[in-house]
What does this fold into?
Amino acid sequence: MDEAHILETLLDLAGEAGMKVRTSGRAKLGEDLPPVASGVCRVRGEVWVVLAASDAVPVQIETLAVALRQHAAELLENRHLPPAVRAHLEPQGD
It folds into this structure.
């Protein structure tokens, strides 16, 4: 399974878990600020995942995997997933 399919599967899982996933542009937020980076946060009780367009696909995969491990473990627990996807979702000492 290639990285694009892994990313797509993780995006589907995040949607099922009720996470808000947004992709940011490549621009900086301001001259003195670094470019946007992928990350996970909670906004008014909802889990949001921001995927920076400037981040490589493996970084986006890991960002989604962290969000799912931390905020949707029950959804993943008894679910059949391809081994390539499951490997990213196994606990990694978050």
Q: What stands out?
A: The mean pLDDT is 89.
